[in-house]
Design brief:
By secondary structure, the protein is α/β, with parallel strands linked by helices. The protein contains 23 helices and 8 strands. Helix 2 crosses helix 3 and helix 8 packs antiparallel against helix 9. The longest helix has 25 residues.
Length: 517
């Protein structure tokens, strides 16, 4: 990119990015999708690929507007090109992690020194938190990469302007990645890096640099990238913007009726535990400057306010999920590298620390792979059994997010549950997600979200039906004991109904057939 030769030399950038991506992506295929997050977001991407509708994300056939589409676009395109499997489904997270790590490396080579750039990058990509996040199919790592790129480009522009260098190309990059951050997870992709950049300008007493945030060409670029999708969806589904901005942003940030309620200090032990063993250097990283230490530079203060700003921002709301603070890891890696290189123990302890950290990354992945697989992966249909193109699939009392992925379902499933407002409001789970999605397509919602009282009418149809639910369901629904039990694994089972109602029979009274082994 013109104006950034010291930061983004093509050969250097290419080698660094390829090596980082290879480390972060090599083992992304080892484990099945985890429920609910990975199953949910990959399921939406797969539905987008199969439907050909690249504008409206859909969960079980219903408009799903919790998050914007960038993850779905990348994941769907990757599965379309490489086949439907776990590795391409997780590609957006790998890209986000590579963007954050590669951007940090190239930025520090320009504004710090090669040694600090290399060590900070090694620290970052061998943090178990970062490494596993790079292989987890949800939106957190993708937006973390966009936030990191936005801040690194904006800071490069500011430091270049302070030193009389070219800055406009870098600033355009900052606005472009802010727009992608908005498309990755909403306003947080713009608001969070903006607040951090403003805080940095104030902290280093360079208030004039804040004017970079109102650069007109940058805003034209940002709006041109981010706005068209929002306009297109609002035109197709009026009320989308109110739901997306008010409910999914402001209410989720300020209210306590959502998942993951934790105390203010929640992220401190989370970050400490998940960044072992590198976190042991933190005491030196935050030690007050003494006569033997160099004073903190503009770069140092950028990393301090970046790390602490992310932690504080996400500590304020009561709803907290672990992946929210992934954007704090690149600056934390820099602060650790700075402390380690300034410590007399650094030359001796760095190599063993890196080896232990890399081993913990692999061990963490192996541990995750050893966890019980989700129902959709465990419930493999036995030989001779397959869901036909006209068969209907019903999920009883739960939504199995990963099932469409592993069963290769071509049609949305019917979900049997209690759908009155009181039942929906009790928890922030699959029921609320589907219920709220159904508001944007009432006709399809009425066909797919079936009240338990209508189970007989739903099952007694000419085509075959497959019912997935708890293996203990026959204790509550005695007629299930007479159904065809196809497969059972742990607490989940599959029953098949052969559609005999077409001949006037009661499909809920079919003779039992032994389950396949």
């Amino acid at each position: 990119m013109k104006g950034l030769p010291g930061m983004f030399g093509p050969a250097r950038a290419g080698v660094a990015l390829v090596c980082l991506f290879a480390w972060l992506a090599a083992t992304a295929w080892l484990r099945p999708l985890m429920s609910p997050d990975e199953g949910r977001y990959v399921g939406v991407a797969l539905a987008m690929l199969r439907s050909g509708d690249w504008v409206v994300p859909r969960l079980d056939g219903l408009p799903f507007f919790h998050k914007p589409p960038l993850f779905y676009w990348i994941s769907a395109a990757a599965m379309g090109a490489l086949g439907v499997s776990e590795w391409p489904a997780r590609l957006p997270s790998m890209i986000g992690a590579t963007l954050a790590a590669g951007g940090l490396f190239l930025f520090l080579r320009r504004w710090a020194d090669p040694g600090r750039a290399a060590l900070a990058t090694v620290v970052l990509v061998t943090m178990p938190f970062f490494y596993v996040g790079a292989q987890f199919a949800n939106l957190d790592m993708l937006v973390a990469g966009c936030i990191a790129a936005t801040l690194l480009f904006a800071s490069h522009a500011a430091l270049s302007k302070m030193n009389g260098g070219a800055w406009r190309a870098a600033l355009a990059g900052a606005y472009a990645f802010a727009a992608l951050g908005v498309l990755a997870k909403g306003l947080i992709g713009l608001v969070l890096p903006g607040l951090i950049f403003l805080g940095w300008c104030a902290l280093i007493r360079r208030p004039r640099l804040a004017a970079l945030m109102v650069w007109l060409p940058g805003w034209v670029l940002l709006l041109a990238i981010a706005v068209p999708w929002f306009v297109a969806v609002e035109l197709r589904h009026p009320g989308f913007l109110d739901y997306f901005i008010v409910t999914q942003h402001f209410r989720r940030f300020t209210s306590s009726g959502f998942n993951g309620a934790h105390p203010f200090w929640f992220y401190l032990p989370v970050v400490a535990l998940l960044t072992l063993p590198w976190i042991v250097w933190l005491a030196a990283a935050v030690r007050p400057a003494s006569g033997t230490q160099a004073p903190r530079s503009e770069l140092d203060w950028l990393m301090v306010i970046w790390c602490l700003g992310v932690l504080f921002f996400f500590s304020v709301p009561s709803s907290k999920l672990v992946g929210y603070v992934l954007p704090a890891l690149p600056p934390l890696a820099y602060l650790i590298a700075r402390a380690a290189l300034g410590s007399p123990r650094g030359p001796v302890a760095l190599r063993p620390t890196a080896i232990v950290a890399a081993a913990l990354c692999i061990a963490g992945l192996v541990w995750m792979a050893a966890q019980p697989a989700p129902a959709g992966d465990r419930l493999r249909l036995p030989p001779g059994e397959a869901v036909g193109p006209s068969d209907q699939v019903l999920m009883l009392g739960a939504y199995y997010y990963e099932l469409p992925f592993y069963w290769e379902l071509q049609r949305p499933a019917l979900v049997l549950a209690e759908w009155h407002s009181q039942a929906v409001a009790q928890r922030d789970d699959w029921r609320r997600e589907l219920y709220e999605a159904g508001r944007f397509d009432p006709a399809r919602s009425a066909a797919l979200l079936v009240d338990l009282g209508n189970v007989r009418e739903t099952l007694c149809v000419p085509q075959a039906s497959w019912l997935i639910g708890s293996s203990s369901a026959p204790a509550v629904l005695p007629w299930l004991a007479k159904a065809h039990l196809v497969a059972v694994n742990g607490d989940t089972a599959v029953w098949r109904f052969d559609g005999s109602a077409a001949a006037g029979e009661d499909c809920l009274q079919q003779p039992a057939r032994p389950a396949s082994p």
